[in-house]
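Sample intake — 2-hydroxy-6-oxononadienedioate/2-hydroxy-6-oxononatrienedioate hydrolase
Collected from: Pseudomonas petrae
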Amino acid sequence: MTTQGLTEASTSKFVHIKEGELDLQLHYNDAGKGAETVVMLHGSGPGASGWANFNRNVHPLVDAGYRVILMDSPGWSKSDPIVCSTSRSDLNARALKGLADALDLDRVHILGNSMGGHTAVAFALTYPQRVGKLVLMGGGTGGASAFVPMPTEGIKLLQNLYREPTIDNLKKMMSIFVFDTSSLTEELFQTRLDNMLTRQDHLDNFVKSAAANPKQFPDFSARLGEISAQTLIVWGRNDRFVPMDTGLRLLAGIANAQLHVFNQCGHWAQWEHADTFNRMVMDFLRN
Ligand SMILES: O=C(O)CCC(=O)/C=C/C=C(\O)C(=O)O
């Protein structure tokens, strides 16, 4: 199958899930028809979505024969709003369980970016039998860095953007989000700003959630030994949002893990080094 013609609109779907206390509508994109499914989970930035985070990764994986599902987490994009006063990582993991059940998916590979990585680990800890392989980029667990003050400069800019969603604050955040800022276009900024401003309720709820529980992403370090899934950890050496020693903690804790560090790369490895990243992921999933 070739992916010509696959767009956000042509793959856009909704589903209602009931999973524990979660009773809401989720938006997701569904692309490809493979026997194996890769779920991609986006990060926590304002205006983030599956399609915004992974538009450079969907097509190669579909062409390689995978079904690709992009889940928009509760509180992002076209999914229902929510205030989270407990663990956001576990809340998203429950949402993914509901989505996997609704789509009759027994087992999925999970590729998580930042908050999506935290969610992937929460899912693997709670529903280990539902996990194939894990790819964790710039995320996987909360907890303190040994080297960098927390919250990091990137997370402070992200929180500020949630409180004051202006083009200036968006540009401030994006200026340290990726390593090579010349790749950021006015069109990308405008699309991202439009995404954010379309859902003022999501922005307000994120701020309320952080006030109710500043530690939205718990530290899973002590439990990483429970994960048996083969895991590929990917980090940017120049990540100023979630520091690289988080990746080292994941590597130390997950027995079947390997770590790849991209030089000249910020917090968006799957976008900044898309071609190499896609080849690496396909090789990892295949073998
Ligand atoms: O606070 C954390 O540990 C996670 C931060 C995070 O998920 C940031 C992600 C940002 C994006 O992926 C985005 O804005 O697209």
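Post-analysis note: The first strand starts at residue 12 and ends at 19.
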